[in-house]
Amino acid sequence: MSASDQLDGPFQKRFVAMGDSFTEGMADIDPSSPNGVRGWADRVAGQLMSNDSSWGYANLAVRGKKLEQVFDEQLDPAVGLQPTLVTIYAGGNDILRPTVNVDALMERYRWGVEKLMSTGARVVLFTGFDSGQAPLFKATRGRTAIYNEHVRKIAADFELDLVDFWHMRQFQDWRYWDVDRMHLGIAGHMLMAKEVLKVLGEKDEIGDPEVEDSPPVSLPERLRSELTWTRDYFYPWLKRRVTRTSSGDDMSPKYPRLTSRVW
Q1: Fewer beta carbons under 10 A from the terminal one: N or C of the chain?
Q2: pLDDT, the chain, mean
Q3: Longest dimension (CA), the chain
Q4: Which H or E run contains 15?
Q5: CATH of region 3-209, choose from 3.40.50.1110, 3.40.50.300, 3.40.50.720, 3.10.129.10
Q6: Is the full-model pTM beyond 0.85?
Q7: Pairing between strand 122-126 and 161-163?
Q8: What sign does the dihedral 98-89-182-216 (CA atoms) show?
C-alpha cells in the first residue's frame, strides 16, 4: 500500500502511536471504541484535535506484541503515514519473558527510532514502569532499569522527548491500575494522557482522574480476591507465556489509517 493510499485526509499534523497493550489502551474499557478500549493515546489525540483541528491520528499498537514485532509490523505503516508526531513504547513484553538480552534488544530499538526520526517527525519515547512494588513483576525490575538506561541514552543522543514513566511515583498507587494488575485502568490512562500532554507542551483540558479510597477488607476477603485474581488473570497470562501465544494474536490495530475522529 502506498503512502497516499494510507492517508485519509489533508491533515497538516499527523500523530501516529506505536507499541503494545500500553498504547492500544488495554483496560480503559470503552465499548464504543475499536477493540473495545480507549487509552491514553486516544485521549491525547482527542485533546490535540480539540486544540487544533488539523490533526489526524492513527494508533497501530496491538496488545501482546514484543519489540521486534512492533518494529516489524508497525514501522513501515507508521512511516507511510508521514507522521509529524510519533510515540513509541515497546519492550515490556520482552522483559517479562524467561530470558531476554536487553542490550541486543535495544540495538534494534535504536535502529527503529532512527528510522522514525528520518521522517522528520517529533519522536516521543517512554521509560518502563518501576515494578518494584508489583508482586508479579518486581523480579524484572533490574531488566527494566537496564532498558530505561538505553532509552535515556537514545533520547539524549538524539534530543528526543521522554515520558519518564519510571519516575512517576503517583503510579505506585494501585488505584490507577486495572484489577488485572498488569495494565493501567481508566484513571491511569487519564493520568498518563495528562503526563504526555505535559511533555508535548500542549493545552490539557482532560479532567483530573478520580480514584476512590479502597474499603477495608478482611483476611478471608483478601484471600478470596487473591484466588480470583490468580484464576482469572495470572493463570491465563502464564499459559500464554508457556504456549508462546499472545493476547494480540489475530487482532488488528484500532486506527490503522489516519482519522480526525476518536470515538
Answers
A1: N
A2: 88
A3: 60
A4: strand 13-19
A5: 3.40.50.1110
A6: yes
A7: parallel
A8: positive
Q: What is the DSSP string of 47-94?
A: HHHHH-TTEEEEE---TT--HHHHHHHHHHHHHHT--SEEEEE--HHH
pLDDT bin (cut points 50, 70, 90) of residue 182 is confident
Query: Where do the structural domains in the chain lie, given as residue ranges?
Result: 3-209, 218-248
Residue 175 has pLDDT above 60, yes or no: yes
The number of residues making up the chain comes to 263
CB under 8 A, 24+ apart: contacts of 234-241: 234/136, 237/182, 240/64, 241/96, 241/97, 241/98
10 membership: H or E segment, kind and range: none
CB contact at 8 A, 62 and 251: yes
Which three cell numbers mark 258? 489516519
